[in-house]
UniProtKB/TrEMBL annotation:
Protein name: Sugar ABC transporter substrate-binding protein
GO cellular component: ATP-binding cassette (ABC) transporter complex, substrate-binding subunit-containing
GO molecular function, one term: maltose binding
PANTHER family for this protein: MALTOSE-BINDING PERIPLASMIC PROTEIN, MALTOSE_MALTODEXTRIN-BINDING PERIPLASMIC PROTEIN
Similarity field: Belongs to the bacterial solute-binding protein 1 family.
Domain of life, source organism: Bacteria
Signal peptide start and end residues: 1-21
GO biological process, one term: maltose transport
PROSITE patterns noted in UniProt: PROKAR_LIPOPROTEIN
Transport as UniProt keyword: yes
Keywords: Signal, Transport
Organism name: Mediterraneibacter hominis
Length: 427
């Protein structure tokens, strides 16, 4: 394995999600036959919940398994990439590690995590929403398991629409979503007096490919070949051009800001907003009437797609007790625990059965996100050089928004991605 993979994995690995970190893990130890497992996670709203679950798990498995969790602040001078790099070189990865979903492919290709097929039941595999299953698979094997999920849809300010005399067609399903033309026309009509018609995800980082990839998928490209080895003809084809051109039109016409102000939609400086399911928890503070509808599609009959993804559980190849590690994952990702964790974390359960049983996801507006996750969720590209791809994607879009030629920018990105793959993996 070429150690250059470390830089490939880590460049841009710090996403809009919480950053996680850790110290060197302990080797599995046995005290009276008890197997000790190390588990790393980033600090977030679920910290106390995990402490409780680990306490329960350890009590139930006393004398058999014991999980020791290390929670690390979501920011700091010794960041996730530094710590993981150090852990790889010192052979001190933990038994169980949460990773951001799109990086599963990189970890798997480099032998840092193991397949879970022998430890996860077929029933539980099939219970994952389609996008989660897609995200967690690599080379035909399941390398990760999800506990929660996310999605993105189009929020709109009803009061602003009424004031502008804008009547939006109300889609009845993800496949019936507003077309790009309808979305742009609405944004145009709502842009006036210091208010932009829409807010698209412009975080200058991982959030861009997470939130904007469905435009490319609806146009006809997943940005990379199915096996994750080639960007030429996928990243820079006509479909990619169409998607980039459409997004650029929103910016160049002034319908969206390339550098939005904070809380632009909540502060009524944007009339619509492409944003995540987490906004549902913030909506109680919005001082206007609002609604949410499905993620736009290119045109009538085009493929409907929507974002998904979250941090997932993996068992590292450093673990001497993979069966025990997987036992904990099965426990913490059970149906009951998935439901609990989603409520604590203001997210969506990753299991179909749990989502179907949850009343809060059965009615509007939450049901919009449920429908998308069940019917149109599309994971970010699965490739060992994902870090390069996501960096090229966000940097390239900003170059385009700044006036760069679209095709040249896409070609440059495809070349960079393929060059990285060939140099690191020798193909």
């Amino acid at each position: 394995m070429k150690m250059r993979w470390i830089s490939v994995l880590m460049v841009g690995c710090l996403t809009t999600m919480a950053v996680m970190g850790c110290g060197a893990s302990k080797e599995n130890t046995k005290t009276g036959g008890e197997k000790t497992l190390t588990f790393w996670k980033a600090s977030d709203a679920t910290d106390d919940w995990y402490k409780q679950k680990i306490e329960e798990y350890n009590k139930e498995n006393s004398g058999k398994y014991k999980v020791e969790m290390e929670i690390v602040a979501s920011s700091g001078t010794f960041s996730y990439d530094d710590k993981v790099s150090a852990a790889v070189t010192s052979n001190s990865l933990p038994d169980i590690m949460m990773v951001d979903g799109p990086y599963v492919s990189t970890y798997a290709e480099n032998g840092l995590i193991i397949p879970l097929d022998d430890y996860i039941s077929q029933e539980d595999k099939e219970d994952l929403i389609p996008g989660s299953a897609q995200q967690n698979m690599y080379d035909g094997k399941l390398y990760a398991y999800s506990i929660t999920e996310s999605s993105v849809a189009l929020y709109y300010n009803k009061d602003m629409m009424d004031a502008a005399g804008v009547e939006m067609r109300m889609p009845e399903s993800p496949e019936d979503a507003l077309t790009w033309a309808e979305y742009e026309d609405m944004a145009k009509a709502l842009t006036h007096d210091g208010v932009v018609g829409t807010n698209i995800i412009m975080d200058k980082g991982e959030g861009m490919i997470y939130g904007l990839l469905p435009f490319y998928v609806s146009a006809g490209t997943g940005l990379i070949s199915e096996d994750g080895t080639e960007a030429q003809g996928y990243y820079n084809n006509d479909a990619a051009y169409d998607a980039a051109e459409f997004l650029n039109e929103l910016i160049q016409n002034g319908y969206a800001n390339v550098d939005p102000i904070d809380n632009e939609f909540a502060n009524q400086k944007a009339a619509t907003m492409l944003s995540g399911s987490y906004q549902l928890a913030n909506a109680k503070d919005w001082e206007f009437n609002w609604g949410v509808t499905y993620y736009p599609i290119k045109e009538k009959g085009a493929k409907a797609a929507s974002p998904n993804g979250d941090w997932v559980f993996t068992v590292t190849s450093n673990s001497k007790e993979p069966e025990a590690a997987a036992d904990f994952i099965n426990y913490v990702c059970s149906k009951e625990n998935s439901a609990e964790n989603a409520k604590v974390n203001a997210k969506i359960p990753a299991r179909v059965s749990v989502m179907e049983a949850a009343e809060e996801w059965s009615s509007y507006p939450n049901s919009i996100f449920k429908e998308q996750l069940l019917e149109t969720s599309y994971a970010r590209p699965r490739t060992p050089v994902y870090a390069t791809l996501t960096s090229e994607f966000s940097d390239g879009l900003f170059d385009i928004f700044s006036g760069a030629d679209i095709q040249e920018t896409l070609d440059t990105g495809a070349d960079a991605i393929d060059k990285e793959f060939k140099e690191v993996y020798g193909n």
